[in-house]
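Quick log. Single chain, no ligands specified.
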Amino acid sequence: MTAMIILLITIIFTFKYIQIANNSSIPLKLIAHDSDITKPKFTISGNNQEIAITAKEGDFLSDEKILLKKNVIFQSKKFKIFSDKVIFDKKKLIASSTEKSKFIAKNTSIISNGFDITDNGNIINFKGKTIITLK
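-> predicted structure:
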């Protein structure tokens, strides 16, 4: 009989504890992103300069390639390049875009339909219709 009373008391306390634990739970707010990476940052180190690469979002295309999206900026001490979509190969340290791009340097601005950055950032080739403005 005593064992029955102890078992009944244990069940009541356990039930009350579970009720209290369930009522005091804190809701979690999860934010879903459409991208694999938020605010990715990379650096290409060339012979003469470092180029910092930033974007608002990025998606993994493979182990080496990342699609950088939304406000993609390549910045060195000598220039900046702005674009909306760029594929960056982190193994080969090259970047390529077929989107409208804007290059700004001290006395030069270039607007093109894309670009390729190769040779650790030492070579930049502009694609398609290109407008060069010299100051």
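The chain has one domain: 37-134.
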